[in-house]
Design a protein that fits this description.
Helix content is 38%, strand content 16%. By secondary structure, it is α/β, with parallel strands linked by helices. The chain has 2 domains: 184 residues, Rossmann fold, CATH 3.40.50.2000; 157 residues, Rossmann fold. Helix 6 crosses helix 11 and helix 9 crosses helix 12.
Amino acid sequence: MKNVEHPRILHVFDGFRVGGTELRTCNIINFLGKGFGHVIISNSGNLDAASLIKTDTDVDYIHPETPRTPFPLSIARICRMLRSINADLMIAYEWGAIDWVLANCMVRSRPMIMTVEGFEDSELFVQKRKRLMLRRLLYQRCDRVVVCSRTLYRLAMDEWQLRPPRLLHIPNGVDCSRFTPANRVQSQTREVRLGIVASLIKLKNHIKLLRCLKEVSDCPPFSLHIAGDGPELDNLRRFCNESGLAHRVHFLGHVQDTNEFLKQLDIFCLSSITEQMPMAVLEAMATGLPVVSTDVGDVKLMVSEKNRPFIVPSNDDTLYAQALKELIGNGLLRKDLGSANRRKCLDLYDEQLMFKRYEELYISCISSGN
């Protein structure tokens, strides 16, 4: 049994860009503080997320500067790097780090955790056969495989043939002290503000939300505020102009402070084709908002029981439009659902709970490592 006073963790990313996985990792590193050291590898060389880590934290950054070489030469190079890196635990993030998982299986100089958040666009609905075979082979060699959603947990059991304790579900968490409810005046005459935070890409399916809004009468008055940017912007603007929605839909681009944005809303909307455990929904719940969403990933499990009737099948525009109509027209119901969502978020999804689970996981793997 190891007793490491200042353990070092090796984090392997395909790219350490600013995204959901990287943001959570930075927050965990900041929570762990000076008791841990870290080595972060970015295969692509992107280190944009490094700015999110506190400056007094013990972190080294490595970018494999030599161009990627074909298999198996790349594995031999990674094995040499692993032998030279002083770390007590390796964490690989997503498929882009799978070559490091294979190399660590060969070197086996430290325990290993695989973190899975979802899939690349090419595998959103069907896994590639070769990747599926590798996942089944290599994930069985990891000390733990961590997934953020119950949806992924079931898939890992069915498709990758993993079982607990090797397979572990740690839900995402949100800073409930930062995302707090605003004092919203409920009135039948005040404009009801709907909002969505999501990249403007086809998978987020904003066009569905716009289609359904066409079916909602203007009593009481409402508006939709879209935070995010992406390649679908022109198509969405065109739809709004052609369907008569342009006067009530506002495109805000990238919003840095989603806390202030959410506080201005009465209803949070999500219309995605696919999700796992979206952080935007957790942030909306912490802000005390009701949620209208397609039934994707863990969304129906995430929201309060009272809110679940407003999480509808992704292929049913009629039910989605009905959910919007009911909430737009009922201020007391909005307040009731929002309060229930806030309570559930505090009980189950506060980020401090998530931090402690990860800390316990890291210490356990390091202590029991070979």
